[in-house]
Amino acid sequence: MLELRLVQGSLLKKVLEAIKDLVNDANFDCSSSGFSLQAMDSSHVALVALLLRSEGFEHYRCDRNMSMGMNLGNMSKMLKCAGNDDIITIKGDDAQDKIADFEMKLMDIDSEHLGIPEAEYQAIVTMPSSEFARICKDLSSIGDTVVISVTKEGVKFSTRGDIGTANIVLRQNTTVDKPEDATVIEMNEPVSLTFALRYMNSFTKATSLSNTVKISLSSELPVVVEYKIAEMGYVRFYLAPKIEEDEDENETKPKV
Amino acid sequence: MSSSRPSAFDALMSNARASAKKKTQPQPKSNSPKKRKTLDHPQNPDKTLNSVQSPQTDESKKLINTSDSSNEPKSEPNSRSDSLLKVNQSKKLRVEDKNAGLKSKIVLLKKKAGDFKPEMVANWEKGERVPFIFISLAFDLIANESGRIVITDIVCNVLRTVMDTTPEDLVVVVYLLANKVAPAHEGVELGIGEALIIKALAEACGRTEKEVKKQYKDLGDLGLVAKASRSSQSMMRKPDPLTITKVFNTFQQIAKESGKDSQDKKKNHIKALLVAATDCEPQYLIRLLQTKLRIGLAEQTLLAALGQAAVYTEEHSTPPPHIQSPLEEAAKIVKQVYSVLPVYDKIVPALLSDGVWNLPKTCSFTPGVPVGPMLAKPTKGVSEIVTKFQDMEFTCEYKYDGERAQIHYLENGSVEIYSRNAERNTGKFPDVVAVISRLKRPSASSFILDCELVAYDREKKKILPFQILSTRARKNVVMSDIKVNVCIYAFDMLYLNDQPLIQEELKVRREHLYSSFQEEPGCFQFATAITSNDLEEIQKFLDAAVDASCEGLIIKTMNKDATYEPSRRSHNWLKLKKDYMENIGDSLDLVPIGAFHGRGKRTGVYGAFLLACYNSNNEEFQSICKIGTGFSEQVLEERSDSLRSQVIPKPKSYYRFGDTIKPDVWFEPKEVWEVKAADLTISPVHRAAIGEVDPDKGISLRFPRLVRVREDKSPEQASSSEQVAEMYNAQKHNHPNNQDDNDDVDN
After folding, report:
1. What are the structural domains, with CATH classification, of chain B?
2. CB interface of A with B, residues 181-240, below 8 Å
3. Is B601 a catalytic residue?
4. Residue A255 CB: number of other CB atoms within 10 A?
5. From B199, B246, B346, B399, the catalytic residue
6. What is the 8-class DSSP label of residue B319?
7. pLDDT value of residue A238
8. Which residues have a Cβ under 8 Å from the Cβ of B91 and sit 6 or more positions away?
């Protein structure tokens, strides 16, 4: 028996909106500690990890661990039927008497679960999520990739394209009125990595979930872009970096 | 599962450059404790789910992992990095080792079937899904061979290997070898354009579309582009190696996607396959997706190999004692069965369960599955017919100029209409469906009818030319919107009331036909026919046919050698066209593969085109002539416009043409043109039917002119090089003396 009641229905809607373009189908895993999801996009370049802790639900009952395979597009369609202030109840197994039941077909998804170690990152940037979304959007009108470099000076987002180049530098800034407007840079070591902007722009769909975003970087590791979900969990996006262009030039020369 | 799988980070490390600079942070040999410190994931509920679903793959993974740990202490030569990297390299090496092993053994497939043992090549366990790399390597092997016998051996050995290890994958292997997703009549298509593949390739490798397009221009084949593309994008985790079932199931899913966002969904499916592909897999993956395998494997060869493979693996039955050469006989049986039931999903399981010798019993002709129509050979004159059919009873029928149709009427009253290519055309002819149901006699409860659908003017009671028929809408036609009426001219019956008739003589089939329908002028008529041996009478009948707007006559044997031979161009049916006498006989259907820029009046359009016939054995297009006449200004403009979008930077690898032919542009094989010519001649320049008449010279056409565009034919259905050779031989036979001075005329 599974029954979860979420008072802020809008939360789940926002989560779905944030991830449904990145992954089509995913398993929702329910256990006594919380409601979670992990899935990769079809190219295996990005990974999304979602956690909603059980404490965040008004009512949470999960008798045994369950994995529910869902088509996220369909789930999002169903959630559109719920108003922002509506309470959403998710039920598994044999539901009895219930009002406003939307039943959705589940599917078997052959998913691979990756263990994600907590790693020490060389640099962690915390900044307003809207600012990050803006930067990604602006840069993508110029180039396809973004280089994120963290140095003593601050964090630099840069790109180049046919029409020119763009560089945006943010410096540490903690002297603000509201704490969520701060830009905090914790750096052990300078780091510079290249990523496909297409994915970054997809991640920023989660902007509405949180005022701040945390970006954790280490050379040769996937970047983690994390949005906290109102005291109850998070959605984390992992993105594998691009391999620097100059390096593969002599190897990819097609043999004609 | 998290403990048995490498983590995202590990996987990423394996993708990292070997030159990775050593990290300053301490990296204790803490691989396993670190792994254990995974995300506080609640007991992995999907673990049970997965292990129940695919025990095999799980087990294999465990195998790999245990051997990994034993390999761990061994120091890798080029790993200067930490332990994480080492573990992963050894795992990666494992997969590579496995592939390398398979690669070194794959040439064994070339062994003569008699010397080959099915366990020689397989590197997977019995019952395990067949890896896609196996079939890709086999494709590669076939592509580098040109001899049909060697190719048959390879295919036969591939099939035997699969039969021995994983027989349930056999049907998938056969579909992939045939480069199909479903039987033709189901009309299932992948529906993937070049643009979509380019997009998927770009996204899968983290490159821009521009780069991919540029490389495509250089290499001329998206398969090669895929092979040459090394990803500039690292991955969270390399997906599991592809299996043929995974690939085929994804193909079927792609074919099913429709409606909103279907292109995006298709693209995602392609990407998922591409990122998992290694070695030469991407190349063949892309070619399969384009349904342009082009490795020189004709379907007939596949069928022969299937028959032979069955003989070697046969457990159920021994060949009947009277059979001298079981291999040839088995190949013949499979080909024959496929010609009446072109459905691998039926044939392959029947072959596995009841054996090849029972195949004709277990798989037979069924209504609802169209067979290839029987075709006629061209002749040059009435006298030739009389000589060929000496002492035989034969009949002459009008040859109507319309669309060939095979009409299936099932017990439950449903009607399906199939084109000559086995495409379902029911939606195009609702009027025909109505007429058939109305005019069949009650005695006929199920049947298959062979007929020609002809545009007909019911007021003037006149047959209209083919061009009028081709103006009809192609899909979802509504009865009330029909402007062009058609008359059904029925001439053969292949099946009646649960009885196949194709083994019966024409005389019997025709009796069944006549007794099963009621004629109604302008709606349903039997093809006009006479039975005569008199030369003059036939000549008169031919003239009458031409007067009645027909193309000419079809002459068929009545009693002897008079069965219906599906998909065959048989000697027992001959066609005689009105204009045969004045030139080479039949027209040819040829494919424009190149063109020359026009000059003078023709500036801005193409001035001449290079045409080719098709050799199905080698899957290549062979140049046959240049053509510049028979075009009105309007037609020339239309053709130039339509072909301009098909221009490719360089000739396809499967084009054969003389070195001296240098067209200004090359085309994708796309259109089929009906062409008439005065003469066929041996040419040192063109390559049509090379090796068939002369060892190193081809055949070319003299004074070719365009008749019309054949929209109903695909390039692979163009006139074959065998047909060209036959026409040449027939002509030589008739005019032995005017041959010599033609030799050096055409270029």
Report:
1. 8-103 (no CATH), 111-179+293-364 (1.10.3260.10), 194-289 (1.10.3260.10), 375-577 (3.30.470.30), 588-742 (2.40.50.140)
2. 189, 196, 198, 220-222, 238, 240
3. no
4. 7
5. B399
6. P
7. 94
8. B6, B14, B64, B65, B68
What is the per-residue DSSP string for B58-126? HHHHHHHHHHHHHHTTSPPTT--S-HHHHHHHHHHHHHHHHHHHHHHHGGGGGS-GGG--TTTT--S-T
**ipTM, two decimals:** 0.78
A250 touches chain B (CB under 8 A): no
Of the options 3.40.50.2300, 3.30.930.10, 3.70.10.10, 3.40.50.300, the CATH number for the domain spanning A123-249: 3.70.10.10
Q: Could you give the angle at the alpha carbon of B511 between the alpha carbons of B510 and B517, nearest 5°? A: 90
* Residue ranges for chain B with pLDDT beneath 50: 1-9, 11-89, 581-582, 736-747
Reading the block at residue A119, the tokens are 């790693």
End-to-end, the C-alpha distance of chain A in Å comes to 62
Residues of chain B in contact with residue A197, where contact means CB-CB under 8 angstroms, are: none
Closest CA to B445 of B495, B408, B497: B497
Give residue limits of the domains in chain A: 2-92, 123-249
b/e string for B261-298 if b means 16 or more Cβ within 10 A?
eeeebbbbbbbbbbbbbbbbbbbbbbbbbbebbbbbbb
Q: What's B303's DSSP letter?
A: H
CB-based contact B236 A242, cutoff 8 Å? no
Q: What is the DSSP letter of B528?
A: P
Q: How far apart are alpha carbons A193 and A49 in whole angstroms? A: 21
CA-based nearest residue to A22, from A238, A203, A145: A203
| pLDDT at residue B162, rounded to an integer | 94
Question: Per the confidence metrics, is the pTM higher than 0.90?
Answer: no
Q: What is the pLDDT of residue A102?
A: 59
Measure CB to CB from residue B233 to each of A24, A31, A45 and give the nearest one.
Answer: A45
User: Which has the closest alpha carbon to B296: B429, B138, B453?
Assistant: B138
Measure the CA angle with vertex B352, ends B351 and B355; round to 5°: 55
The CATH class of the A2-92 domain is alpha beta
In chain B, which residues have their Cβ closer than 8 Å to the Cβ of A66?
45
The span from the CA of B47 to the CA of B5, in Å, is: 12
